[in-house]
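Mods, move this if it's the wrong board.
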Amino acid sequence: MQPRPDFEDDLDTGFSADDDFALAAAAPSAEPVEESFGPAASRLQALDELPEPPEGGSNPVGDLQTSAETAFAQHSLPRITIHVFCEQPATAAICDRASRDRRMSRATTVVRPGGLAAAVEFYQNEPTPSLVMVESSEPKDVMIGLLDQLAEVCDPGTKVIVIGAANDIALYRELMRRGVSEYLVPPLQPLQMISAVMTLYSDPAAPFAGRQIAFVGAKGGSGASTLAHNFAWALAERMQTNTVMVDFDLPFGTAGLDFNQDPLQGVATALTQPDRLDPVLLERMMARCGERLSLFAAPATLDEDYDAPAEAYDEVAAKIRATAPFVVLDLPHLWSAWIRRMLLSSDDVVVVATPDLASLRNGKNLIDLLKQNRPNDAPPRLVLNQVGLPGRPEIPAKDFTEALGLEPALVLEFDAKLFGKAANNGQMIHEVAPNSKAAEGLDQLAQLISRREPVRAVRRAAGLASLFRRK
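Not the wrong board. Structure tokens:
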């Protein structure tokens, strides 16, 4: 065979990709596969210990897939090229939807018709990219023969994912032995495909990434900042999970006031030197607001213009995500490249609106943008705030939500006394009125997004008293 030309796809992941598929094709069948495949070998050893599935049972191959939550610890794929060869139009549609996901924004995906046979023919005179996904409904022997032909024309470093119709653990084992990186069976979902691809290119040295939740107001004065701060407090104190609150409203942020903190350093300092940030420096810049809650405060002064580039915001946010399971962003009511990127890259987005026409228009624009650019994510959460403000004409909640096409996750009635007292005292709603409807609603929102149950306080004094009584 003639040497294959090199394929340029700007792959710079910081780690090497194993040539599993190409090596498997070249290795004699008598050689021990465990010495040739690297990561595939450990999976194969585990598979060999599994019993054969019963006829008509559950989906054994689907049970072996890595969950989406685990794979999505990495923010996005590296800059790779992916070619997908589909037999069914439905599979092509799923691949197209997956390619538009925010986690695959840096990858270039090309979907072609024809399946496995078309891939073999196409690469006779073309270089192969970093990843090839092929669909095949052929019988096992025919599929294996075509994969052997594909292996002969694959460039070093190419990985292969097979989409097949047979839910067969024996076939899965055979494909793993031949160096195929993954085998997927219907019914497929976009997140399943994204998870499979991200698992192949996840960097073991990449830092942990917490869940990022962005709060944005549909208009100024909607109360998004107040709710973001109280939500972060509820995650830390009520859900008992480590949380970082980040105030990105640099000139006018109120997180320091709401938490009664006045740190000397914060977000603005981090944005001036994002490349120097490490866990020790981040810890020094954050103010402690409790055992589990840390605050990255805004300077809230007009001494500077705060014109940091969007890349600096991205880098700072990524490094903060490595410090806690949950990171809550308080985004200012403005529009710029970094605001857009923060919204689209967050795991959850909470849109806070008041029941008026300006919030309706702006809220619809935000929700439509998020739904269009995040097709595989949960829709944004809508919080309808300040409902029942005396003397203000309002759009009824039912009409408001119908126009947005989104049911509210939380509806908060206007309570000037409660929220005003909390703000003036530098306290949270739970601290001022723990049994109020607002506190209960914030608990429900935190529970909905974090998927956790509130942790009830343990009455230690009563426990000790009963212990003494026993004596």
